[in-house]
């Protein structure tokens, strides 16, 4: 690979040369900068070159599997331009999962694994690794630069499109840290520095005695590219304004251009929405503002009184229902101790005993109020919330009902007592009459008997 790049550098025919070892960088050019395809080095990637060499050595009966940290290699494997020389591409993560699933433990074998004759190619995964394998004298006609990270790649391509670059040999890697920073390296638990040191150590390690006879292998390393760009519709200014308005941006000063959505400006985001590439609601300031707005609406329109206190029990916020309940203006209570308006012991209980008190009935005689009061502490915000439900009317109604019940019971008791007295008097009279009758009849009986 390096020899092919070296030939292009020595020839000096290309205005600029972009390396093509990173499939994501190649796709970036083919999809979004097709006018810069002539600057792509017409050289296959190391994966394809290695696969073609293996097939020439062992024949097409073999199966070639690529294992690495790059997801984009899967696309390159399936790409029709790759010629099907690689049967499959899997990541290090997938290989580990597969081995674990099959309960396979790898150990060093007795037979040494074949290596490559030119070990300098092991520098390729490093930023600037390709440049490091090409002699300086072969690069005299070009300024060599290594670029890693997709944002920096885009910046370079934009400069190249504007004609600002001439005679540059650009080693381009989409991942920050090149292949060592690949997406399937992030969950290994190995830091970039340790991975780099390990790679350099392997490069310097004595090569295997058994190597591929790569010098005897002759394969075509030229590569073609496709214009894979997609023509997307562009919105008018009116359509952009309509999209921005849907996320609460009706004035230029509301366009924060914070980049939180992944686009540099709000207008870029609106264009992406129009083209179907982005969700209009995925705007952090809009989502936050909307959430706060909804929360405020709920607090403002809830029928229950809500009061927010700081750690010193001073009123920080109060909703309209609470102002109406206390019959007070907002300016008269903000910043004042809550005890001046609603004196009770619940606040100390929450502060010092780490309690949450819910629906405790309290009567404030001075205000003529009876409420169900809840006091909740939010430690993370060092805030205390008071929730008041006015139950004065219900309490008065309960008291009225109790009074009616008590009066009814009193009347009922009086009736019972009177009835008992009447019953007792009747019983007394009946008792006297019965005794007299008995005496008279007894005398009559005796008289009849004696006769």
Any key phrases for this structure?
alpha/beta, 13% strand, three-stranded parallel beta sheet, five-stranded antiparallel beta sheet, 451 residues, Beta-Lactamase
Brief description of this entry?
By secondary structure, the chain is α/β, with parallel strands linked by helices. Helices cover 43% and strands 13% of the residues. It folds into 3 domains: 2-216, no CATH class; 240-288, no CATH class; 302-394, PAS domain (Beta-Lactamase), CATH 3.30.450.
Mean of residue pLDDT values: 85
H/E topology pattern: HEHHEHEHHEHEHHHHEEHHHEEEH
The structural domain count equals 3
Structural class: alpha/beta
Number of helices: 15
Terminal CA distance reads: 160 Å
Q: How many DSSP E strands? A: 10
Uncertain parts: none
The main pleated sheet reads as: 5 strands, antiparallel
Rg, Å, rounded? 45 Å
Principal-axis shape: elongated
Beta-strand level of the residues, as a percent range? 5-15%
Q: Spatial order of the strands in the main sheet? A: 7-6-10-9-8
Residue share in helix: 40-55%
Topology overview:
Blueprint: H1 2-11, E1 17-18, H2 23-32, H3 46-58, E2 65-68, H4 72-78, E3 88-91, H5 92-101, H6 129-132, E4 143-148, H7 150-161, E5 168-173, H8 192-204, H9 237-246, H10 266-274, H11 284-301, E6 305-309, E7 315-318, H12 320-326, H13 330-333, H14 346-353, E8 357-364, E9 369-378, E10 383-390, H15 392-450
Parallel strand pairs: 1-5, 2-3, 4-5
Antiparallel strand pairs: 6-7, 6-10, 8-9, 9-10
Helix pairs in contact: 9-10
């Amino acid at each position: 690979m390096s020899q092919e790049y070296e030939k292009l550098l020595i020839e000096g025919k290309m205005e600029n040369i972009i390396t093509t070892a990173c499939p994501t960088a190649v796709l970036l050019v083919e999809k979004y900068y097709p006018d810069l395809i002539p600057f792509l080095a017409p050289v296959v990637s190391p994966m394809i070159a290695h696969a073609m060499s293996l097939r020439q050595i062992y024949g097409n009966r073999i199966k070639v599997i690529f294992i690495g940290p790059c997801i984009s290699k899967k696309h390159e494997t399936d790409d029709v331009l790759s010629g099907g020389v690689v049967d499959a591409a899997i990541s290090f993560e997938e290989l580990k999962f597969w081995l674990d699933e099959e309960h396979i433990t790898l150990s060093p074998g007795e037979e040494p694994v074949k290596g490559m004759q030119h070990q300098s190619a092991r520098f390729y995964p490093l930023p600037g690794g390709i440049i490091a394998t090409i002699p300086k004298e072969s690069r005299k006609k070009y300024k060599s630069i290594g670029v890693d990270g997709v944002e920096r790649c885009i910046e370079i391509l934009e400069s190249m499109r504007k004609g600002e670059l001439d005679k540059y040999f650009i080693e381009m890697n989409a991942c920050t840290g090149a292949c060592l920073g690949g997406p399937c390296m992030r969950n290994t638990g190995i830091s970039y520095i340790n991975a780099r040191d390990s790679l350099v150590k392997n490069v310097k390690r004595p090569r295997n005695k058994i190597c591929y006879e790569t010098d005897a292998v002759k394969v075509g390393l030229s590569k073609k590219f496709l214009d894979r760009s997609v023509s997307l519709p562009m919105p008018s200014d009116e359509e952009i304004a309509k999209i921005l308005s849907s996320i609460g941006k009706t004035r230029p000063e509301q366009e924060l251009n914070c980049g939180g959505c992944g686009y540099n400006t709000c207008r870029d985001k609106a264009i992406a929405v129009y083209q179907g590439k982005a969700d209009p609601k995925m705007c952090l300031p809009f989502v936050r503002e909307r959430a706060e707005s909804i929360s405020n609406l709920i607090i403002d329109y809830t029928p229950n009184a809500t009061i927010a206190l700081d750690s010193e029990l001073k009123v920080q916020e109060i909703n309209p229902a609470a102002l109406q309940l206390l019959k007070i203006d907002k300016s008269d209570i903000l910043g004042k101790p809550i005890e001046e308006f609603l004196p009770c012991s619940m606040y100390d209980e929450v502060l010092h005993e780490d309690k949450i008190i819910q629906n405790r009935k309290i009567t404030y005689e001075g205000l003529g109020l009876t409420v169900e009061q809840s006091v909740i502490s939010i430690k993370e915000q060092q805030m205390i919330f008071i929730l008041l439900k006015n139950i004065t009317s219900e309490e008065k109604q309960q008291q009225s009902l109790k009074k009616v019940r008590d009066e009814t019971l009193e009347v009922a008791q009086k009736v019972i007592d009177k009835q008992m007295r009447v019953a007792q008097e009747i019983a007394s009279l009946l008792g006297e009459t019965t005794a007299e009758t008995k005496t008279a009849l007894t005398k009559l009986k005796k008289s009849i008997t004696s006769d």
